[in-house]
């Protein structure tokens, strides 16, 4: 006999590496530019004496800044410690059926981990060969649905009409739409929160607002859904957001011009890199994110796509360039390459030319 019989055992999510030192880091979809100068100013002006006190459990200032930016009410917004935290809260709050929740077989690899840790039954639904989603697959009995749009790691964006068909067909299930990458040119389903009560939309400041290190994520939904989320949050940890994150989050939200500038730069880099990768023989879907999920035929005798992708991944790492490689069925022939600065991408492309 041992206590181990009663341990909640899980196979944890594997985050991308965070290497020390001078590397070209294209492996975790961070922004290559710093956060808004307003964030720096706000943090420098922070009175550290305020750290004696607990932060506002309602996160009122940040919730109001987000609501104002999107033309919504405070009651439509829930915030948390990055979108991982808010997604985890959404799973805990909305997915309590005996029926399995549904999500694509190729998607953000944290979904099955949350399902496992919270003991939520789940079923993965295969994407089509080209990694697009068939809404018909979600018109079957289920205990909830989660869809990343644009999807990760594929970068592919589904039209809001496709997502709406799924929401409409599932009035008895909550549909979580994870829009972590929507700010890089995607069309959002956000207006649909007014039309469907079974929809919540998840966003993050980690990518398009260059604040992965601050950990700020948020959810939009109808007031009742947001209230359910807050009830669960207050039952786990009422003070999720620390004072500096609240201050930085407000400042980031208030600098729209800077947000437009950096997301515009990332989009321009992505479109240029697509052309360059194509001319090197890579193939990929039309990414609407800050990364490209690219495959290539093997270039050595007998080399498979998967062997090629793994060889390039390891060779780049030796040269201090980090991209992401998933050794998993269907996607082991691809590299997920986050967009860096133009200079960083030039270095990557020059080295790729040598390696292929
Ligand atoms: N959703 C998707 C689809 C992601 O790729 C990520 C990034 N790993 C997240 C959510 C979580 O991001 P964060 O917790 O930094 O907001």
Question: How does this structure look, described?
Answer:
The protein has 10 helices and 12 strands. It has 2 domains: 3-33 and 257-355, Aspartate Aminotransferase, domain 1 (Alpha-Beta Complex); 39-255, Type I PLP-dependent aspartate aminotransferase-like (Major domain) (Aspartate Aminotransferase, domain 2, 3-Layer(aba) Sandwich), CATH 3.40.640.10. With 356 residues, the protein is an alpha/beta fold. The chain is globular and about 60 Å long. The longest helix has 24 residues, at 256-279. It has helices at residues 37-44, 60-70, 82-94, 111-117, 160-169, 223-234, 243-253, 256-279, 305-318, 342-355, and strands spanning 24-25, 77-80, 101-104, 122-125, 145-148, 175-178, 199-204, 217-220, 283-284, 291-295, 321-322, 334-338. The mean pLDDT is 97. α2 (60-70) packs parallel to α7 (243-253) and α3 packs across α6 (223-234). β5, α5 and β6 (175-178) form a beta-alpha-beta unit.
